[in-house]
Amino acid sequence: MGDDDAVDRATETFVAHRNLLFTVAYEMLGAAADAEDVLQETWLRWVEVDLDQVRDQRAYLVRITTRQALNRLRTMARRKESYVGPWLPEPLLTTPDVAQDVELAESVSMAVMLVLETLSPTERAVFVLREVFDVDYDEIAAAVDKTPAAVRQIAHRARRHVDARRPRSAVSPRRTRTVVESFLRALEGGDLQGLLDVLAPDVVYMGDGGGVKHAALRPIVGADKVARLLTGGLGKNRTPVAFGHTVVNGSPALTIHLDGELEGVVAAHVQEDRIAGLYVVRNPAKLSRIGSETPLTLR
Question: How does the average pLDDT of the chain come out, rounded?
Fold first, then answer.
């Protein structure tokens, strides 16, 4: 078989699994741009592989992606040590049908992605591969250079860690959209009581400006504090603020525009018809894909 035929075969297989590979990388990294870099590195290694010697091409691609993501994750850990203020995952545009896959939608939600940040790199890789994609232990072991027995122990430890910190189950996408719309009406109307009605008493607000845009330097907890922050901040803007509806990380969300330019994305975690978590990303480096990328299906 000629080199061109081999490259065509490699390309066909890679494209067929690209959404899966991107999702593995994104869930491990929380950064779409870095996940794209990992896919590029995966492709460069994949195209050099003798496909006739590969028994399970999907598993082999996942293995390469996982190893590259682990390398990138360790590099990112050093960057995060000097990050200004809270670090939030890069918002990821997703198609509405992603929300129908409940486990997948939850795993890419802002709330759960933040929990994954508390795992070690190897724990995170094992958790994502096992709990989200049901990869068998032998394949995970090959990807993370551990024995299957060690991987089982890591998976158990990671699962217990995540379960202890995982937010209570969110409501349906339809109900989330209704709550987000109520939140937006109260916000646009400067309705403090309306905001208090839609925010959970112990709501957590996190803002990510990356040291480039103004944002709270630490999480803000409590409905009254969050409501006053939001109404006060909106009232200080002399430039007209426009909000739009979108879907990020598998859930209804809002975009913020100032003078027609994308200024931020607001994701919400809704529990029992109230917002328990508000995640506002304003770091321009994390918004560059929102206005230009096609929503992803992730699988």
Answer: 90
